[in-house]
Amino acid sequence: MNDFSGLIQHLEKMSQQAANLDRRRGEHHQPLFDERLFHCRARLLLPCVEEAKATYQSIEREQASGRLTATRAEYLSEQLLAQMAAIQREISTVTVRSNEIKHSSHFRKPINQLYQELAQHNEWERRLKEMVLEKQRELDKAPAFLQQEAQKALMTTEQRLLRCQQAKHKLENQITYRERNQ
Length: 182
Description:
Elements (H helix, E strand, L loop, with lengths): L4 H21 L20 H19 L5 H23 L1 H5 L12 H31 L5 H34 L2
Helix pairs in contact: 1-2, 1-3, 2-3, 5-6
C-alpha cells in the first residue's frame, strides 16, 4: 500500500479544526450528516472525524492482515474520501452555519423548569375551575336583566380554563417526550 502519512496528517489537522469548531459553536440541533455516511449520527464534528479515522484504520488493519479484498478496499476508500470531503465542507461553511436560525430545541428549557411550569399550570387550573363554578352560581342566581352579562363572564372564564388546560397538556407532552428521549 502507498504512503498515507499525508492522509494521517490531514486527518489530525481536521481533528484539531473540528475540536475548535465544536468548542465555539456547540452541539447542532440535529445530526450533522446522513447516517449512511457517518453511523455515529453526531451533532458535533469531532466524533465524525474520529469515525473517518476509524475508516482509515480499518483499511490499514485489513490490509496488514491480508483480508482486504479489492471490492472492500474500493468501498472503504470511497467511504473515507466521502467522509473527509463532508467534514471539510462543514469546516469551510462555518460562517454560513453561524448565520443559520437556531432550531427551537437549541433553546429548550431544562426539564426541571418544565416541571415547575406544570405545577404552576395545575394551580391555575384548580383556581379557574373554582372560578367557573362561582360564575355558574352567579348565573343561576342572576336576575333576568343581568343574565346576559353573567353568561358572558362564565364563558370568558371557561375559555381561560380551556386555554390553561391546553397549555398544561402541551407541557405534559413535552415532559413525556423529553423523558423518553434522554
